[in-house]
Amino acid sequence: EIGTKGQWFERRLNLSAAVYYSDYKDFQAGVFVPALVTTTIINAGKAHMTGFELEGVARPVDNMRINFGYGYTDAKYDSFILPSGQDVTKTYVFPLIPKQNYTLGVEYRWVGLSVGNVIGSLNYSWRGEQQSSINNDPLTFRKAYGLLDGRLSLADINIGDGRTAELSLWGKNLTDEEYWVSGINLSLLTVRQWGD
What's the pTM? Predict the structure, then answer.
């Protein structure tokens, strides 16, 4: 892994970036067995991952903070032979690893108010399409989705004796995005678990 960090414009912009390569030998993988409704751990042979990550924080004006991040991952098997002798090197995939994901958030502070400081923030996170199962089953394929969360706080409320309090109102998935976080193909039916 190789990375770098930097600050610019009187520390109003902070960036960090990294590229990485991981090589695995005797890699172990979990393969779901529908007949037994369980996962069996087998030796998947060889695999590798390459990727890139970027993170940053910008402060374009006083009291405002913008954070962002981006990630890219390419995960592949180099050798994967099932106990039956079947070569699945080209057909099996790494589950729950999207190729791309990113986050974007903004926070603003209204300070110096008589009742305290008001802090408002919005955060958006997006994950690319991914598989829930190692065997690349189309019934357990998860589409890309993005979630928007928000928070509004009244902070630094003076409650006497040098003590302060904070009141917050927050919400998750404000756009009511429908997505599911897991899927299992049981042959006769597919079981899926939906997110918040």
Answer: 0.82
